[in-house]
Amino acid sequence: IAGLPKAPAAVATPAPKPDADGMTLLAPMSGSVLALDQVTDATFASGVLGDGVAIIPVDCRVVAPFAGEVASLFETKHAIGLLSDSGVEM
Asked: For 72, left (φ over 0), alpha (ψ -120 to 50), or beta?
């Protein structure tokens, strides 16, 4: 597709392990992980929106970090609320 980089070769990663609740949480994209306090956006860097990390993407693919369904979608499409198969909204 014009303007998009070629897809990188597949990278082998270890199989994810479920947590104590049986849920497996995966990274939504490939890239470099950055601590939130290193992000230039003060809202995220201050932690006011909660704990997390920033990911500097290496490709144009974003996937859900767990099995579930879309519960809400902001009109601007900048954020998506997901409902896990266990009924927890994230």
From this structure: beta
